[in-house]
Amino acid sequence: MKPATAPHADAPIGVFDSGIGGLSVLRALLAELPRERFAYLADNAHAPYGERGDAFVAERARAVLARLASEHTVKALVIACNTATAAAVQLLRAEFAPLPIVGIEPALKPAAALSRSGHVGVLATRGTLQSAKFQALLRGLDGRARFHLQACDGLADAIENEAASARQQRVGALIDQHLSALGTLGCSAGEIDTLVLGCTHYPLVLPQWQARVGGAATLLDPAEAVARQTRRVLAERGLLRHPTEPPAEPLWLTTGTPDALASAVARWLPAVSTI
Ligand code: DGL
């Protein structure tokens, strides 16, 4: 399916995730591109994606983009979800060409460059880690670092759906569990000194990561690099909104309950902290 008309600079940028994780990317986009209009779509009715399999996620990504293109005539799409990028970015680019599509993937290359011990921990969903795209990324960096992979089952779901009263404790317990399974953190030989947050939900609870990791490892989140890449892609195509245009409140869309998304946005967007 193709967008009906050529993209226009004043049209919104579509941003989507399985749920609220993409708010960590939207925050960076709003800082980098304050004059742009955004239509954020949370596929809450079908979240979480991470343990669902590529075919399901690709189908959802296709349906979401079809809606953003036809109902909101977006000029570009940011897939603010590592799992959906891994499962669908290539097919979406082919199907929706020439719509510019920016994806997100775990920051392995910057992590390999940064690590002194040569041991990097990668925290992501099972879907991302098992995807052909991620495996190819890993092969391309063969010999640059030793990557320790940890599928954080249940974590995105707990961040997204756990009742506020229990969230801190449940999320903390899952972070502890997944970090222990990963290995020893630190700067000595054989220890992991760099951690890649490879799911956009994880930076939402950055203080909880920081409390557990302390100074033992550096945490990496590619959201700001994605925002800069979005700017480049729009600039190359002459699609940046005019700098004198007033900032606009994002349009909030969900396949779930609008009230639940509104409270999630109020809870998470102002609270997202940067690394
Ligand atoms: N936030 C998503 C990601 O970056 C997906 C989490 C999920 O739905 O499991 O992978």
Written overview of the protein:
This protein is an alpha/beta fold. It folds into 2 domains: 13-104 and 223-268, 3-Layer(aba) Sandwich (Rossmann fold), CATH 3.40.50.1860; 108-220, Rossmann fold, CATH 3.40.50. It contains 11 helices and 9 strands. Strands 4-3-1-2-9 form a 5-stranded parallel beta sheet, with helices on both faces. The chain has a 4-stranded parallel beta sheet with strand order 6-5-7-8, sandwiched between helices. D-glutamic acid is lined by residues 17-18, 21, 47-50, 81-83, 125, 128, 156, 199-201.
Helix content: 40-55%
User: Helices and strands, in N-to-C order?
Assistant: EHEHEHEHEHHEHHEHEHEH
Largest sheet: 5 strands, parallel
Helical stretch count?
Answer: 11
The percent range for strand residues is 5-15%
Mean pLDDT: 94
Q: End-to-end distance, in Å?
A: 38 Å
Bound molecules: D-glutamic acid
CATH topology of the largest domain: Rossmann fold
Name the CATH architecture of the largest domain: 3-Layer(aba) Sandwich
Low-confidence stretches: none
Strand order within the widest sheet? Answer: 4-3-1-2-9
Radius of gyration: 18 Å
Q: How many structural domains can be distinguished in the coordinates?
A: 2
| Number of DSSP-assigned strands | 9
**Structural class determined from secondary elements:** alpha/beta
CATH first level of the largest domain: Alpha Beta
